[in-house]
Design brief:
The protein is α+β, with helices and mostly antiparallel strands. It has helices spanning 3-17, 33-45, 98-113, 139-143, 153-158, 184-191, 219-236, 277-292, and strands at 25-28, 51-59, 62-72, 75-83, 118-124, 196-203, 208-211, 244-248, 256-263, 266-273. The chain contains eight helices and ten strands.
Length: 293
């Protein structure tokens, strides 16, 4: 599927599903249990920034089941709540056995889809910022254990994960509460040069201050990105404070990943190999340590 066809399908889907919303809860259109699971997986796949997804199965105005998931970069990073108990045990997504954890999570979603009623979705920012080490369970791992019906082709393509020949670097934890000092944005832009395939520095007004060659971002896209990030900041409130390091990981490990470092002065966008996440975090950590010396 080409990117043009992908975008067209999504726009058509938006137009088909567009309706006035009186609250934050949206109903997922599904006619069977397999459809329910497909719509739930599609919602997970479309969640890029950290969100809490609350799935509720309602029958005749009464909630029959609830499943609350933490999702980041299209991956389930935690199961916060599941009721009734008949749905099954809540899996520990930090477990070393990914296959077993994916199986437990898939079983939980399958049992949820078997409950009578329509599936409703509510999405909101998490109370605490997710950790960079929270890899989570991917769509491909869920599709390996969950049977669905009519899952969009672009969602299926995103789950076709390639093998990674080189090990992924370990991200070094950083103190998110430590404030960014003067010049951090420009210095971070320079510090990622050795492993960044492309990068751009964008002002708080959405203007391109500088970028690498070939160009990573256009003026219109820089303005749109800044506006979207500001809306997300307004939505998340004080829960996720500045400065922020936002990492967007692709479904296919060999595809490039994005890192967005934000301060009060603007945003730096860096494109890097997915396995280089540790280098991104280390670059920021080194900047902070240099100021402490």
């Amino acid at each position: 599927m080409t990117s043009e066809v992908n975008v067209t399908r999504k726009l058509q889907h938006i137009l088909a599903e567009l309706s006035p919303r009186t609250d934050q809860v949206a109903q997922l259109s599904a006619t069977s249990r397999g459809n329910k699971r497909a719509r739930m997986l599609e919602a997970i796949g479309q969640t890029v920034l950290a969100r809490v997804l609350v799935f509720t199965s309602e029958h005749e105005g009464t909630a029959k089941a609830t499943l609350v998931l933490n999702v980041n970069s299209s991956r389930v990073t935690a199961v916060e709540h599941a009721e009734p108990e008949s749905l099954g045990n809540i899996p520990d997504l930090a477990s070393e056995s990914r296959a077993e954890t994916a199986q437990q999570l898939g079983a939980l979603m399958t049992e949820f889809s078997r409950v009578d009623g329509d599936v409703h979705l509510q999405s909101f920012p998490p109370e605490t910022a997710p950790g960079a080490e929270d890899v989570g369970i991917t769509l491909s791992e869920l599709l390996a254990v969950v049977t669905v019906e009519e899952l969009p082709e672009d969602v299926v393509e995103a789950t076709q994960v390639a093998e990674v020949s080189e090990p992924e670097e370990v991200a070094v934890p950083i103190d998110a509460a430590q404030p960014a000092r003067a010049g951090y944005l420009a210095r971070f832009y320079d510090s990622v040069d050795s492993f960044s395939a492309a990068k751009a520095e964008i002002t708080v007004e959405g203007k391109i201050a500088r970028q690498s060659e070939p160009e990573l971002i256009t003026a219109d896209l820089a303005e749109l990105l800044t506006r979207d990030l500001q809306e997300w900041e307004n939505d998340s409130g004080d829960v996720i404070a500045m400065p922020q390091l936002i990492v967007m990981r692709p479904e296919k490990p060999k595809d490039p990943a994005l890192a967005l470092y934000r301060t009060e002065s603007g945003t730096v966008v860096s494109v890097h190999e997915t396995r280089k996440l540790g280098s991104v975090v280390s670059a920021l950590k080194e900047l902070r340590q240099s100021d402490e010396q």
